[in-house]
Write a structure and sequence with these properties.
Blueprint: H1 2-9, E1 35-41, H2 45-48, H3 52-62, E2 67-73, H4 77-86, E3 104-108, H5 115-124, E4 140-144, E5 160-162, H6 167-183, H7 188-195, E6 201-202, E7 207-211, E8 217-222, E9 231-232, E10 260-263, E11 265-266, H8 276-280, E12 285-286, H9 289-303, E13 307-311, H10 321-332, E14 338-340, H11 351-356, E15 364-370, H12 374-379, H13 386-398, E16 403-410, H14 417-434, E17 446-453, H15 470-483, E18 489-493, H16 496-506, H17 513-521, H18 535-544, H19 549-553, E19 568-569, H20 574-584
Parallel strand pairs: 1-2, 1-3, 3-4, 4-5, 9-19, 10-13, 13-14, 15-16, 16-17, 17-18
Antiparallel strand pairs: 5-6, 7-8, 11-12
């Protein structure tokens, strides 16, 4: 296979995406192992190599003596064309072997618009795209990642879904596979049945779904008594002792996040009602500053990177942030290694923190008010006052910053045009804050307003809410454009047509599989890329498969309705999310976890959330 690959590399762009051989890759003798795993990322090398979850699971599996895990990325369109022309099937980076020759092919589904790319990769591997058509001699296909929390739109394509965090779960699945092979009890159906008994693994073929005349789900039942009615997500309870990749693979070509990614903690204390990550990654679990400092040192030594990005959903909520930054600065300043603190909240941004991260040579800062008025910020439970934002930008401006990015959403539940106009007014007040003490000599300010469209996501308090119609979203975008008249305020907005398709698949069920299959057969892939997304083609696909997009995107789901993702238990209770949805319509907030426990239920999973009374 390597010879065929080499023969076409000089004819495609960025051949470094496909060569393998990077510093830090894992090579094993395939004749001495019992399980081969192809870890497939349904996007380009540059995107996939930047994914921390993939790095973690790659290392976790390769820690096992009898397992060899290799990486696979979606080839760009020019490379795919050459591969099909020359009979080269989808291959792994490390060995160059065909994915169809592996025991397990694992896919990381990060975003609904990667579905066509993932299914196209299955086809490019020379495998039938539907799981029911793949025989005993073909790999078991497993999918995980954020989209697995509603696996139904792609349930017919994969054999197993990994729900939650995979460090422990994946080692259990790998051990089960090897044990059944060695004992002679392995068949694909027996393995899938046994895998369903492991915590955190959902096998869709073991469930029967029926529908009512109105199109809603009538029942969602396991086919056998030993199959769990609901699949409980897996979590890692102690991050201090769990695996973390201190010797990650270093890419040959520029990637999106070409730096050390230091995972500080998991979960979120905030409870924004639109945010899926804030719900599905609960409970909050932190690493100690001591562990983080040692991991940062090891990764910088092993990679040569000159920047450390401290990752989490909200880094300023880390309870030991001052200690951690002091520990890191004690050696990073001397080695000229920059610290990056993404996902800062305006209400936690202080001069002291600004002084510490001043080594990052940038003139811009980013905050996410999400809504233009306090009423709407309360409705979505952002728990951010305008005074918090103004204090934050004042600190930034006093420190010499003159570029501010503000992230908002439109189409939020309970939103009015007054709320939309409030975005322009808030941006203007940020401009005025820059000039409050007169015009700085030789300097101006730029406030960039970026507005995305609200998408109702599974496992959130807004999962029942409808998305605005496409026409309404586009009208609101133009309305805001008219309200922004200051040239110092730049306005960017997300394509509402993309958001509509995303909403369809976010709240979709198994009846969407034929649409995905038809889209792939028509050459659709890389829908997350502007140059390849085609709304007209998607409309045609939905029409030809008898699917009404409004049924999934624009319908208010019933509070008593069986939701496609109800088979998945994320820990946070449905009762809690219903309470939160009702409070949104009254613009009532819920305190963050540090202030008081609101009884979301996530602590039943373990992990000792430090703010939950059950953990004390």
């Amino acid at each position: 296979m390597r010879e065929k690959i080499s023969g076409i590399l000089k004819t495609v762009s960025k051949p470094g995406r496909y060569t393998g051989g990077e510093f830090g890759e894992v090579i094993k003798d395939k004749n001495k192992i019992k399980l081969r795993v192809a870890f497939c990322f349904p996007d380009t090398y540059e995107i996939g190599m930047s994914n921390l979850g993939v790095r973690i699971l790659y290392g976790v599996l390769n820690q096992m003596e009898d397992v060899w895990c290799e990486r696979v990325y979606a080839p760009w369109t020019d490379m795919e064309e050459k591969m099909r022309e020359h009979g080269v099937s989808l291959f792994a980076q490390e060995s160059g072997d065909a994915v169809r020759d592996f025991d397990i092919a694992a896919f990381s589904l990060q975003y609904e618009l990667c579905y066509t790319t993932a299914v196209n990769m299955i086809d490019l591997a020379g495998l039938p795209i539907y799981s029911k058509d793949r025989g005993e001699d073909m790999p078991v296909l497993v999918a995980g990642g954020p989209c697995a929390y509603n696996a139904e739109p792609v349930a017919d394509f994969f054999d197993i879904f990994s729900i939650g965090e995979g460090e422990d779960a994946w080692q259990e699945l790998a051990s089960l596979y090897m044990e059944m092979k060695e004992s002679g009890t392995y068949t694909k159906s027996a393995f899938l049945r046994a895998a369903s008994h492991l915590e955190g693994f959902y096998v869709p073929s073991l469930y029967e779904v029926t529908y009512k005349e109105d199109g809603t789900i009538a029942s969602f039942e396991p086919k056998y008594p030993d199959v769990p009615r609901r699949v409980v997500k897996r979590i890692v309870k102690d991050l201090n002792t769990s695996y973390f990749p201190e010797r990650p693979v270093v890419p040959y070509v520029d990637t999106v996040h070409d730096r050390v990614m230091l995972e500080v903690f998991r979960g979120c204390i905030r409870g924004c009602r639109f945010c899926q990550a804030g719900m599905v990654y609960r409970p909050v679990r932190e690493k100690s500053p001591e562990v983080l400092n040692e991991q940062a040192k090891a990764m910088c030594k092993n990679t040569g990177y000159g920047e450390i990005s401290m990752t989490s959903l909200s880094i300023s909520d880390y309870s030991c942030l001052d200690t951690l930054t002091d520990d890191l600065l004690a050696w990073t300043n001397e080695k000229k290694i920059n610290l990056s603190l993404p996902s800062l909240r305006a209400d936690s941004f202080t001069k002291e923190l600004m002084d510490k991260i001043s080594t990052v040579r940038t003139s811009s800062l980013t905050f996410a008010p999400e809504a233009g008025t306090q009423r709407l910020r309360d409705a979505i439970n952002k728990n951010l006052d305008e005074s918090d934002l103004m204090n934050a930008v004042r600190v930034a401006f006093d420190a010499g910053k003159n570029l501010v990015k503000l992230y908002f959403m439109n189409g939020l539940p309970t939103e009015t045009y007054e709320d939309i106009a409030g975005i322009a007014e808030l941006a203007q007040r940020v401009v005025h804050e820059f000039y409050r003490n007169g015009k700085p000599k030789g300097r101006g300010v730029t406030v960039t307003v970026s507005v995305s469209c609200f998408i109702p996501k599974p496992h959130t308090p807004f999962q029942w809410e409808p998305q605005d119609s496409l026409e309404s979203l586009m009208h609101k975008q133009m309305f805001l454009a008219e309200k922004i008249t200051d040239r110092r305020v730049r306005y960017n907005w997300h394509d509402a047509k993309v958001s509509r398709v995303e909403a369809v698949f976010a709240r979709g069920d198994r009846r969407l599989a034929p649409a995905i299959a038809l889209a792939v057969s028509r050459g659709m892939r890389f829908d997350a890329w502007d140059e390849y997304f085609d709304y007209d083609k998607w409309e045609s696909v939905f029409r030809d498969t008898g699917i009404d997009p409004a049924f999934y995107a624009n319908r208010r789901f019933g509070e008593d309705e069986i939701l496609p993702w109800d088979v998945i238990d994320i820990g946070v209770s449905k009762e809690f999310m219903l309470r939160e949805m009702h409070k949104a319509h009254e613009s009532r907030t819920t305190p963050n976890c540090k202030e008081t426990c609101s009884g979301c239920g996530a602590n039943k999973l373990g992990g000792d959330c430090r703010w939950c009374p059950q953990a004390k």
